[in-house]
Amino acid sequence: MLRGDTAERRRRRAIRTRRARLQAARRSRRAAERRRNEGLTYQEIRRRRRALWRRVYGTGAVLLGAFVVLVGALELAAVVEGTAEAGFSTATGLAELAAGLYGVAAGIAVVRRARGELPGSFSLWFLAAWSAMVFAIPAYHYGELIGGPVAVTALWLVAVAAILWFLRREADE
């Protein structure tokens, strides 16, 4: 017992505790009744909550992807022919475009399918985007040997086309 703790204080504390328990039970009963009236089960409530968070994450992916696409486009627009960094800027911009477009596409798919099942092709999309970003490096090195930013872009496009062809062929099997 605490000092100064009288029987009256203990009685008041017990009354407050009982009132709090009663209020919590009433709130719980009202919530259950509201769910029954609306026809919502716990599964439906969880499904709605999951759909909400998927929409939030999908919207974030779309916004981040759009920002990365914008940065990549600005990087490509700033390329000056004949400079030492022209090929590297082109390769960096192409890699950023690949990552940004993946973010936008995946985000849109998540937002559109928030309430249902997500597509199983996300892994293939990710693999294609990751490969496109990685293949910007050899495209830069060989493109610089051949002839500048245009060659870098051409080699990168050929590599991406080969990646997409290979992934589609593997996905069908």
Number of helices: 6
Major sheet description: none
Helix share of residues?
Answer: over 70%
Strand content is: under 5%
Summarize the helices and strands and which ones pair or pack.
Layout: H1 7-38, H2 42-77, H3 86-112, H4 122-134, H5 136-146, H6 149-172
Key phrases:
173 residues; mainly alpha; single chain; elongated
Give an overview of the whole structure.
The protein is elongated, with a radius of gyration of 29 Å. It has helices spanning 7-38, 42-77, 86-112, 122-134, 136-146, 149-172. The chain is an all-alpha fold and 173 residues long. The termini are far apart. Helix content is 83%, strand content 0%. The protein has 6 helices and no strands.
In short:
Helices cover 83% and strands 0% of the residues. The longest helix has 36 residues.
